[in-house]
Structure formats: C-alpha cells, structure tokens
Amino acid sequence: MLSVLRHRTYRHLFAAQVIALVGTGLATVGLSLLAYDLAGPDAGSVLGTALAIKMVAYVGLAPVISAIAHRLPPRPLLVSADLIRATVACGLPFVTEVWQIYALIFLLQSASATFTPAFQALIPRVLPAEEDYTRALSLSRLAYDLEMVFSPALAAALLSWITYNRLFLGTVAGFLASAALVLTATLPARSPGQAGQAPGFVHRTTRGTRLFLATPRLRALLALTLAVAAGGAMVMVNSIVYVRDHLGRATSDVPLALGAYGAGSILAALLLPRLLGRVTDRTLMLPAALTSAVLLLALAVGTWARPGAWSWPALLAAWAVFGVTESVIMTPTGRLVRRSAAPEDLTAAFAAQFSLSHGCWLLVYPLAGWLGSTAGLPAAALALGTVALAGALAARHLWPAPDPDRVPHLHTALDHGHPHLSGARRSAAGWQHAHDFVIDDLHEHWPPRAGIDRPVHSGPSGA
Q: Tell me: the pLDDT tens digits for 289-306?
C-alpha cells in the first residue's frame, strides 16, 4: 500500500490531507469544550446543531460550489479553500455566543465542501493506474481511521500544557501546512474537455447528480452508502448509551467501543488493495451491506435480551464488524465514480457523491438519536436495520452483473461526424463502438439497445 507514496505529487497531496485531518480533529475537541463553556449541560444540543449545519453545508453546497468553480485550475481552488478554513479557525478562540459557533462552522464546512470533492477528483488524474489508485483510496481510508484515534490523544496531551482555545491554533497550522503542500505539488493540468461543458449554471449544478441517477452502479452506490451509514450512525450516536446505560460500564469503556469500530475499519483498509485485485467491487460491497443490515437486526434482538457477561465482548465484536463493512463499502467508492465519469466530469461527479452520501448520513443520524432516546435502543436498531436491509436489497437490484467497464453499443441515429462516434466503425446496422468515458452530453447505453439514442448517459460503461 505504501508504495504509492513514491509518487512525489501524491505524497504531497496525501501529506496535506493527513495534516488537515489532524487540524480538524483538534478543532473537534476544542469545539466540544467551547460548547460546554458556553452552554453547559446543553452542550450536546449545541454540538448536534453544529453537526446538522455541517451536513446541510455538505449536502446543499458541494454541487453548487462545484458548478461555480468548474473552470478554475485545481491549485488555486484547493489553496483558497485551505486559507478560508484557516481564517475561520482563527476566529474560533474569540467566540462568545452560541450563534457565532454556528456561523463559523457553516463557513468552515462550506470551504470543506469546496476542498474535498476537488481533492478527490484530482487523485485519479495524479494516479491513473487502477492499482495505484486503489492503494491511494485504502491509504486515505486508513488516514481517516487513524485520525479518529490520534487527534483526541494529541489533544489530550496538549491540554495538559495549554488551554483548550489554543487547540484552534493547531487547526490553523494544519490548514496552512495543507495549503503549502498543495502549492509545492506538481499538479496535472485541467482537462481540456472541461472547456466544452454546457455554460448553464443549473446544468453544471445538477450534472453530477444527473450522472448518479442515470448510472445503475452509482445508484447502487447510494443505496450501499445508506446501508452502511445506518450501522455507522448506530455506533457514533448510541455507543455511549449502550456502554453507560444498557451495560452499566464505566465512561472509560466508551473509547474502547469506538476503538473497536476504528480497528475493524483499519483492518479492512489494509486488506482491500489485495482483495480488490482479485475480486470485483460488486462482489465485496453487496455482502458488506447485507452484513451491516443483518448485524443491526441481530443487535435489536440482543438488546432486548438481559445483559450478561457475553454482552460486552459481543458489542465490541459487532462494532468491529460495522467498521469492516463501512471500510469495504466506502474505500472503493472513488473507483466506481472514476469509472462512471469522463475526466472533465470528475469534479462534478465527486461533488455529487460527497453531497448525496452525506445526505444519507443526515437521514440516519437523527433516526438513531431520536428513536434511541424516545423508543429505546432496540427500536432504533430495528429501524436502522430495516433501512440497511432495504438499501442492500436495492443495491443488489440496481447493480447489474456483469458490470463491464466498456459497453459495446450501436448507433443508427447519429451522423458519422458526431464526436461521440470517435473511433467507431461502420457496419450494415449502424456505427459500432465501445468506450470508457462520456464524450457527448450523457447518453444511456445500459442495457445496449440497437438503434436507440437516449438523452442521458449512464456513465463510461453505462453499467
């Protein structure tokens, strides 16, 4: 996996990602302490609102910002987003009112909604080889998982020397270092095909979403994301309730439960590059979603039972499996998006994936919290298990098998000079060819049907 770090440009970009993640982790700890300072016992509601604002910014703004910035080269876009995030972090130590937290979080996450999709779209252009890109995806997943462990530990160590508001200075330093690393990286030029995109703002804003809705494998990806988000929401929202109230264990056991979740995700991230070299994404991802659903339903049954000596080990094992399933589904996501979009559409496609996937989390987070607090943990697990099962079954129905990267198809209605027919050969029935990328404005080719040209395209392979 680490062999991909020999690539200088990717090494700089990965270092920028890791340092920015550490800075973000320090901000998360500092923000929790700041919320408690301002709101006391109501700190949880403040943080919950801040999390909702973050998700709204991700869901609503990523496609819009992508449409506005689609003609910008990646370097100034990424650096500007980092500088905005650093500037906003500078203001956090001076917050005196709760509403100021909300305003700054919205600005910070709006910049993140700019940075992350642009960064994700850049990596497949830096690492065009499928094997290298798969390693990069696993390495990125590993960085996210390790950050969940490292940042709180670093914050705890720093808090023995400094006050919590100084943690935000580490956040500022992280974003500035990220910007510096992006500046020193040799980035690929913007795809020349991007200049040919339709000029309409609404068209650009919805292009990535239309690509997802027109591509069966990407529609399946959304269903898979919903399935795995249901399990992740149960872990992130209700771990403390399971540990403290249901099992009656000490607060110090909460990090152990979350650590089991992270350990499962890390283990899967380490194994995936080799597994994905032997089996298809579909073969791994569909069973992972079904596993998450079955585990949630089993959790509902187990929670109704009287806790015993078996309960704590069983919870740790379940949380570890939830981590595995999330990593198995989320790590190959970039591969599926890259296969389903032309180079000039990558930023829009990743922005749509970023927005729509966070929409899934926005749905299940309150479901896990509200049902858990009002109807009890078994009801929450049962409801989330039902959501996950529906997502897993929908993904199996939506994702065709086989799912080739190149789909041969036939055109009888297009003129021979049409740009979509580049490289096609003439036959008695029409123009025959197979292609990887969207050349003209979205045609659907799945399933291949002779003589029919449609207004939307399902992606590179149409699968």
A: 999 999 999 999 999 888
